[in-house]
């Protein structure tokens, strides 16, 4: 790690002013950024510590739960309103990392954590996302953990965040502040597809600060749940995951929103799978149809074809829970 | 009754120092003026270094030296006899033998500056495409000359005839992946020269080997090399051999004229101190109708490097364990552009896995309970040497284990046991590992005028409890209380000891302590019976016993005198050093029973319950022995379900060189583990009836888990680790 300057910001406006310099970077909990810097994946001359900004609260207002960007994963996960009204969010947070990491990590940092693709994480390997044009060894290499949908011939990394999957299913909005003032970015447009520019990951501009996340409180959200499949019992990223919001009347699915982790370069909302359920009875046939719709465009590689059946099984497992709980 | 010092579940004597931070590990050594080295590693797996640009690094602030093959002093390659197994020293020429081989070393006044400068070293290569996939090169397999782990082509009897005569034959192919040690503490060297005298603080399982290797590398006399290793944060075999980084650190320290510290990063540890080589194993096991084995044919093919052909996944269990007249064990190698393999926590686990899994397959073919199959093939002798085990209560382990587990309630049909949300499987296997048959160790016992004892031996404590049990052994023999005995280790100035490896510490070092303590005790007894003022005056020495800090007449314990009085009257200390006597071969065994739960939808395997019953002779300390059994079981869960080091087939580089890509079990993966011991002394033991036990507990568990998965699902997953994709593929 190279030497860097460090400034602690106390107000969002000041943080944004300091971050206008492209050599600067925000640091919140530091649980991802410091790993990347120590491993030489990222170099920044100036770190702006935003952890003391007054953006760490959780409030309910106007049919939304408003989460401060610097709220800690551990605090949000056990917040009463979150647990009651947005169970999928609480579950996704608790399924991520370890208690120690969650005690340090902020929501904003979680959304901006970078892929765990091992080629990306080793600066001495080629990787288009880290070093545009250097190539993607995952395509013909070890891609067990890589994307089966939404990838490109330039990058098939998966986005590692569980939180982002839940927020995508919940149709949340990211609030930001930049030199041009505040704005709101819907989750659906927050992450960019890799295309031929995998190094461009989000809609954020240079120095734009995430100030908060707004999540609509709905009847649908109250009946939501998260399922994470991984290679050990805990403290591990998803092989595949599902955030499901389903509202039933009798057997019939009235509303459904489904987002998936571990299968795509961004949290993967599948409207095709949702449409296969809405207006139909929740039974084995419709669940199967939803799974088939989900993976219709899947493009597995040498080592990750298993994710195609696995994500369908995960979907069927989680939908089965709704059926049983009815 | 005097209180026995062995057997009790004594807490680790170094526990408080460890949890309070008072324990100083190698990297904590305070060496005046220490500087820091950082290794620059090859990013290609095969080829040559064509140029190294060191200008930027040399000019960086704080840099004291940048070393490449062009300016590092020539060093003598230490020999395998001193456990320097690697057959080349890096940074001596331009040849790249594997990725992650050091190509340059940067030394600076602070670690941060050394790290920063290391990023400025520009290395150019002429790279060639590497070959790193075992399956692709199986056709190149060859049988290397024998090294340290048994014959590579071992035959007894007539396997073809044995197979022909069999009522049933199980033919299987099992594969196990590359795995890494991942000790919590990485390898560390701190080297300081004073003229021609070298002092090294090292995280090692063998200070004597390190001392010898450094003597050879630099042409130094023994008295000029001192190696210190008071504490280890685990080793698991990684720190068993001596590796190049130790020699390189001493070399650059000499060249910069300052003490130098090197701490391997986690990623560097993946290419610097060995790994468990990938294996491909083919077995044919035949049995008569009653289950008696008629033949075992076991061919293990494993990865070796371009420069060494040491085979560390020994088929020891195949050769030794079961009564079988016809056995052929072949150990083959395939050269790949990878680092050499080495010992990894119980190297025989890989072959034990295949053997014990195949026996399970055979039990189904025969329609015989797997416990019964093993009981019928139990042997009181080491089948390879033909010598009787000192003692073997393996049948009692099966029996007690089955009872504690509730094995009799098992429905043997695969897929027959379920709970609310999944499949339940029960499996078992035998645990077995040699413990001894290795060089001996010596120890010095010093009894002071205050009647307390200090024992010294140049051994190490991996974290297994050497400090504790050696003190217990010394106290028991001397008849002192634990607090009256101190045990010091980890200094090459102490009498030499064998490495902390091969489950040999108790039979080798323990025996050395017992011999020295016995001789010292006899000297004190001799003083007591010779002294006219002593209550024991005139007694025959063999009628005197010791205990609770006293010497007393065996038949009249009230006639007694304290060590302290005897020594005070003597007025001088007594010191005895034992000779190293080759440690006899022991065989520590056990039975492991496992329950798994398999989620039939998501394919997740969870170990729910585990019972292990072991015979390691007399148990010196029930707490440390139980810890060893639990630790072995936990590693075995990782071995079976999640651990594998992945190598990119095109780049020839490890892509999982860290604890986030390489999955060891976490607490939630580990069930409650029921451990018990037969605890009967082995009469052949030179260490008060105890045998070594380090590696036994891990053997058996992997196969027991795999066998339980079969019982749950009806499918054999013969390729480890058993990840959910394999279960799903099998179930669909
Ligand atoms: C061992 C381990 C296991 C993990 N497992 C999981 C897991 O299973 N699931 C999961 O979802 N996550 C997991 N994580 C990731 C973890 O959740 C993230 O590291 C964490 O959420 C990042 O938050 P932070 O506050 O520490 O961010 P930092 O590391 O401080 O920052 C990360 C990035 O976000 C930027 N940033 C931070 N806050 C803002 C803001 N308000 N506005 C603009 N930019 C900002 C920083 O500049 C930086 O680029 C794991 C992490 C570790 C270390
Ligand atoms: S998948 Fe993406 S992140 Fe991974 S190596 Fe390829 S380009 Fe880089």
From TrEMBL, chain B:
<dbReference type="InterPro" id="IPR046867">
    <property type="entry name" value="AldOxase/xan_DH_MoCoBD2"/>
</dbReference>
<dbReference type="InterPro" id="IPR000674">
    <property type="entry name" value="Ald_Oxase/Xan_DH_a/b"/>
</dbReference>
<feature type="domain" description="Aldehyde oxidase/xanthine dehydrogenase a/b hammerhead">
    <location>
        <begin position="20"/>
        <end position="129"/>
    </location>
</feature>
<dbReference type="GO" id="GO:0016491">
    <property type="term" value="F:oxidoreductase activity"/>
</dbReference>
<dbReference type="Pfam" id="PF01315">
    <property type="entry name" value="Ald_Xan_dh_C"/>
</dbReference>
<dbReference type="GO" id="GO:0005506">
    <property type="term" value="F:iron ion binding"/>
</dbReference>
<keyword id="KW-0560">Oxidoreductase</keyword>
<dbReference type="InterPro" id="IPR016208">
    <property type="entry name" value="Ald_Oxase/xanthine_DH-like"/>
</dbReference>
<dbReference type="Pfam" id="PF20256">
    <property type="entry name" value="MoCoBD_2"/>
</dbReference>
<dbReference type="InterPro" id="IPR037165">
    <property type="entry name" value="AldOxase/xan_DH_Mopterin-bd_sf"/>
</dbReference>
<dbReference type="InterPro" id="IPR008274">
    <property type="entry name" value="AldOxase/xan_DH_MoCoBD1"/>
</dbReference>
<dbReference type="Pfam" id="PF02738">
    <property type="entry name" value="MoCoBD_1"/>
</dbReference>
<protein>
    <submittedName>
        <fullName>Carbon-monoxide dehydrogenase large subunit</fullName>
    </submittedName>
</protein>
<dbReference type="InterPro" id="IPR036856">
    <property type="entry name" value="Ald_Oxase/Xan_DH_a/b_sf"/>
</dbReference>
<keyword id="KW-0500">Molybdenum</keyword>
């Amino acid at each position: 790690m190279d030497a860097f300057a460090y400034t602690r910001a106390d107000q969002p406006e000041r943080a944004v002013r300091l971050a206008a310099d492209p050599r600067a970077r925000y640091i919140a909990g530091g649980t991802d950024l410091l790993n990347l810097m120590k491993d030489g994946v990222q170099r920044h001359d100036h770190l702006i510590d935003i952890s003391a900004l007054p953006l760490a609260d959780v409030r309910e207002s106007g049919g939304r739960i408003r989460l401060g960007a610097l709220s800690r994963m551990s605090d949000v996960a056990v917040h009463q309103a979150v647990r009651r009204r947005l169970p999928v969010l609480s579950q996704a947070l608790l399924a991520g990392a370890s208690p120690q990491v969650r005690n340090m990590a902020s929501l904003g940092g979680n959304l901006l954590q970078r892929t765990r693709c091992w080629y990306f994480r080793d600066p001495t390997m080629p990787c288009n996302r880290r070093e545009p044009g250097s190539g993607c060894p995952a395509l013909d290499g070890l891609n067990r953990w890589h994307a089966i949908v939404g990838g490109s011939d330039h990058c098939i990394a998966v986005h590692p965040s569980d939180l982002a999957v839940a927020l995508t299913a919940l149709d949340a909005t990211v609030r930001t502040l930049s030199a041009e003032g505040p704005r709101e970015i819907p989750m659906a447009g927050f992450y960019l597809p890799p295309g031929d520019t995998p190094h461009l990951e989000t809609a954020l501009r240079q120095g734009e600060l995430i100030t908060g996340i707004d999540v609509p409180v709905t009847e649908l959200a109250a009946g939501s749940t998260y399922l994470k499949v991984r290679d050990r019992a805990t403290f591990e990223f998803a092989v595949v995951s599902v955030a499901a919001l389903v509202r039933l009347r009798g057997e019939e699915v009235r509303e459904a929103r489904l987002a998936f982790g571990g299968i795509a370069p961004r949290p993967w909302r599948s409207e095709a799978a949702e449409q296969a359920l809405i207006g139909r009875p929740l039974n084995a046939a419709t669940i199967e149809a939803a799974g088939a719709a989900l993976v219709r465009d899947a493009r597995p590689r040498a080592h990750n074809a298993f994710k195609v059946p696995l994500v369908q099984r995960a979907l069927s497992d989680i939908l089965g829970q709704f059926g049983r709980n009815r | 009754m005097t209180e026995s010092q062995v057997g009790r579940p004594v807490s680790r004597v170094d526990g408080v120092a460890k949890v309070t931070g008072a324990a100083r590990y190698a990297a904590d050594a305070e060496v005046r003026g220490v500087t820091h080295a950082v290794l620059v590693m090859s990013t290609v797996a095969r080829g040559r270094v064509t140029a190294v640009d060191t200008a930027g690094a040399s000019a960086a602030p704080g840099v004291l030296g940048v070393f490449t093959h062009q300016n590092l002093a020539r060093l003598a390659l230490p020999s395998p006899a001193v456990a320097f197994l690697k057959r080349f020293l890096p940074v001596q020429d331009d040849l790249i033998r594997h990725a992650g081989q050091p190509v340059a070393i940067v030394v600076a006044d602070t670690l941060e500056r050394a790290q920063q400068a290391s990023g400025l070293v520009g290395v150019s290569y002429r790279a060639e495409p590497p070959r790193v996939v075992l399956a692709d090169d199986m056709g190149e397999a060859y049988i290397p000359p024998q090294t340290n782990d048994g014959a590579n082509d071992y035959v007894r009897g007539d396997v073809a005839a044995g197979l022909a005569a069999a009522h049933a034959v199980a033919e299987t192919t099992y594969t196990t992946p590359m795995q890494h040690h991942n000790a919590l503490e990485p390898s560390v060297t701190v080297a300081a020269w004073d003229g021609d005298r070298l002092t090294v603080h090292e995280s090692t399982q063998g200070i004597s080997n390190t001392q010898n290797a450094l003597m050879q590398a630099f042409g130094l006399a023994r008295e000029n090399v001192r190696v210190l290793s008071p504490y280890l944060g685990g080793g698991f075999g990684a720190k068993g051999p001596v590796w190049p980084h130790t020699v390189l650190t001493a070399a650059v320290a000499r060249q910069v004229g300052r003490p130098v510290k090197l701490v391997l990063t986690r990623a560097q540890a993946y290419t610097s101190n060995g790994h468990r080589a990938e294996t491909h194993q083919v077995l044919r096991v035949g049995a008569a109708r009653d289950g008696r084995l008629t033949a075992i044919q076991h061919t293990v093919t494993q990865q070796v490097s371009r420069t060494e052909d040491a085979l560390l996944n020994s088929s020891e269990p195949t050769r030794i364990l079961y009564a079988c007249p016809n056995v052929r064990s072949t150990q083959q190698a395939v050269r790949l552009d990878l680092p050499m393999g080495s010992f990894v926590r119980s190297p025989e686990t890989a072959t034990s896995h295949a053997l014990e899994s195949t026996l399970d397959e055979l039990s189904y073919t025969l329609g015989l309970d797997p416990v019964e199959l093993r009981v019928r093939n139990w042997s009181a002798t080491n089948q390879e040497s033909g010598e009787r085990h000192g003692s073997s209560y393996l049948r009692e382990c099966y029996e007690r284990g089955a009872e504690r587990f509730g094995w009799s309630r098992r429905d043997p049909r695969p897929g027959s046991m379920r709970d609310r949300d999944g499949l339940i499987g029960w499996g078992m296997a035998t645990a077995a590992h040699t413990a001894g048959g290795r060089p001996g160790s010596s120890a010095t016992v010093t009894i002071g005028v205050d009647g307390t004892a200090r024992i010294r031996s140049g051994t190490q404590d991996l974290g297994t409890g050497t400090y504790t049990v050696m003190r217990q052994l010394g106290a028991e023999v001397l008849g002192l209380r634990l607090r009256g005995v101190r045990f010091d280790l980890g200094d090459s100035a102490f009498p030499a000891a064998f490495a902390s490896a091969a489950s040999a510490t108790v039979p080798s070092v323990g025996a050395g302590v017992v011999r020295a303590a016995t001789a010292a005790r006899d000297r004190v007894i001799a003083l007591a019976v010779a002294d006219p003022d002593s209550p024991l005056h005139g007694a025959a020495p063999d009628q005197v016993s010791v205990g609770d800090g006293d010497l007393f007449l065996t038949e009249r314990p009230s006639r007694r005198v304290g060590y302290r009085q005897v020594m005070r009257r003597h007025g001088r200390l007594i010191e005895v050093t034992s000779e190293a006597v080759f440690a006899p071969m022991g065989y520590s065994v056990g039975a492991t029973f496992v329950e798994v739960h398999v989620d039939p939808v998501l394919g997740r395997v969870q170990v729910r319950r585990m019972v292990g019953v072991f015979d390691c002779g007399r148990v010196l300390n029930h707490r440390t022995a139980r810890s060893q059994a639990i630790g072995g079981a936990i590693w075995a869960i990782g071995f079976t379900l999640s651990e594998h080091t992945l190598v990119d087939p095109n780049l020839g580089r490890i892509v999982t060189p860290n604890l986030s890509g390489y999955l060891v079990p976490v607490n939630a993966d580990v069930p409650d583990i029921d451990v018990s011991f037969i605890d009967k002394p082995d009469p052949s033991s030179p260490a008060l009836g105890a045998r070594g036990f380090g590696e036994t507990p891990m053997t058996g568990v992997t196969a027991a888990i795999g066998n339980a998965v079969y019982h749950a699902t009806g499918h054999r997953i013969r390729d480890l680790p058993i990840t959910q994709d394999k279960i799903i593929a099998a179930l669909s």
